[in-house]
Design a protein that fits this description.
This protein has about 240 residues and is mainly β. The protein has one domain. Helix content is about 10%, strand content about 35%. It is built from 3 helices and 11 strands, in the order E-H-H-E-E-E-H-E-E-E-E-E-E-E. The strands form 2 sheets. Strands 1, 2, 4, 7, 8 and 9 form a 6-stranded mixed β-sheet that branches. A 5-stranded mixed β-sheet has the order 3-11-10-5-6. Strand 10 and strand 11 (about 230-244) form a beta hairpin. It is globular and about 50 Å long. About 45% of the residues are buried.
């Protein structure tokens, strides 16, 4: 049986506000113009960064190989499997660099993507609980030495991996803003693993949520570097997007 252990998508408490309506964009401090900070994510997207990270992994892993976004070199399949107010961008499995020129994003959609991230899943037939898979992930993931991103050539600030606020996880510990989740792999999946449900699954990484871009052409770059299971890993991703 082929098993799933992890995929380094380098593809490798929260502030509670007692409000009854969504926080207006004008009320969000512009430390990084265009970037929604994690404390405001729930009001902007309906999900925390951790919840978005779990949804991102489901999006990235549950699609069959022919249309799977992380292995798409051009971005032509970027709309496959997308729904809701948040549009996912992806890195590369195992790290590396790629420039995607063929991705068109519907206007009015926020963008969510990982600078570097990883997951760990309990395989069918195993008996690992959430804590078991979390301990394995945290043993393998990191330390992360560098993070970077830019929006139309403007660098995103506050990305020192030691203290950046843009780290998010889905797991059984207090710092995670989402619970462990499951992924369901299709028969033709990018791992060549057995089809079926993998649970519990946990994830950790560094992400950005961008507010909707104006119509037209935009360039987004992102990536990071560090260790995974003691080995160097890095990614450098460029999207030349068309928003229409």
């Amino acid at each position: 049986m082929r098993t799933v252990r992890c995929l380094t998508m380098t593809l490798v408490g929260a502030l509670a506000l007692a409000v009854s309506a969504a926080l207006p964009a004008s009320a969000i401090p512009r430390t990084n113009p265009g970037v929604t900070p994690p404390w405001a994510s729930k009001f902007v997207s309906g999900k925390t960064y951790g919840e978005l990270s779990a949804a991102w992994f489901k999006y990235a892993l549950e699609q069959p190989t022919p249309t799977n976004p992380p292995i798409d070199q051009t971005g032509v399949n970027c709309n496959s499997g997308q729904s809701g107010p948040v549009f996912f961008l992806v890195g590369l499995p195992g790290g590396g660099s790629v420039t995607r020129d063929a991705c068109t994003v519907p206007a009015g959609r926020s963008l969510f993507f990982p600078l570097i991230n990883a997951f760990e899943a309990n395989n069918p037939g195993e008996n690992r609980n959430s804590w078991d898979v979390w301990q394995k992930l945290e043993k393998d993931f990191g330390p992360i030495s560098e993070l970077h991103a830019s929006i139309d050539a403007v660098p995103v600030r506050d990305l020192n991996p030691v203290h950046t606020p843009y780290r998010a996880c889905a797991g059984p510990v207090a710092r995670c803003s989402a619970s462990p989740f499951s992924i369901t792999l299709p028969a033709d999946n990018i791992f060549g693993a057995d089809q079926g449900r993998y649970a519990p699954t946990v994830a950790d990484g560094f992400y950005l949520l961008l507010r909707p871009l104006s119509r037209g052409s935009h360039t987004i770059t992102f990536g990071g570097s560090g260790l995974y299971a003691g080995e160097e890993t890095s990614q450098e991703i460029t999207y030349h997007l068309t928003v229409s």
